[in-house]
Design brief:
hpI Integrase, Chain A, three-stranded antiparallel β-sheet, 3 strands
């Protein structure tokens, strides 16, 4: 059986990510993209967030019944929490005024009782990427890839990244070591090492007589 060719994930640099978030067209767009990058969430996980999933006391977000039907927790940064609070003040509530607050979608869609679609989120991402001048063919999933890669480059243990992403196998997370350009660029090439003066070998002294 032929194995599928493995492609390495397309990742944005920290500078590109910063530009993307800075040019987001609205508070809502900036928050959505910040959740994707700042928490490593999949598009479907971002749009299906409810008020009850945000734990501001413990600074975590609970991701329920995600891919593989497993729950997990991710970090809630102070900046994301601040954006969430700003968004809650202006969030449209015409469709869910009767819904108990914990059960309300953070990003309600145009249809009553439904969250916004991943298609809408995708469109917001591509608008921001274009405005930020990011030319490489990144997709919305690049936010999640960039989250993992940037954590790895800053020295976060790969098993912690595995837990944050909700990966079953470490192999799936380990592929980010292939795109962690900061780590790769910092490794000295053996070619450069050839030109370094060789350290003199210490002469072995004969052991003292017993």
């Amino acid at each position: 059986m032929l194995r599928e060719p493995q492609k390495i994930p397309l990742v944005m640099s920290t500078d590109e990510t910063k530009r993307l978030l800075a040019v987001a067209s609205s508070l809502k767009a900036r928050l959505l993209l910040s959740l994707g990058y700042g928490c490593g969430l999949r598009a479907g996980e971002v749009v299906r967030l409810k008020v009850k999933h945000i734990d501001s006391a413990q600074k975590i977000i609970r991701i329920e019944q995600s891919k593989g039907r497993k729950d997990r927790n991710v970090m809630l940064s102070s900046e994301t929490l601040d954006l969430l609070r700003q968004w809650w003040k202006v969030r449209p509530s015409r469709h869910d005024a009767q819904t108990p607050v914990p059960e309300r979608w953070l990003f309600p869609g145009t249809r009553a009782g439904k969250p916004m679609t991943t298609r809408q989120l995708n469109r917001l991402f591509h608008e921001a990427a274009e405005a930020a001048g990011i030319r490489k063919g990144v997709t919305l999933h690049a936010l999640r890839h960039s989250f993992a890669t940037h954590l790895l480059e800053r020295g976060t243990d790969i098993r912690i990244i595995q837990a944050l992403l909700g990966h079953d196998k470490l192999d799936t997370t380990a592929r980010y070591t292939r795109v962690a350009t900061g780590m790769i660029a910092a490794i000295e090439s053996p070619l450069d090492l050839l030109s370094l003066p060789r350290k003199p070998r210490k002469n072995r002294k004969d052991p003292p007589p017993a």
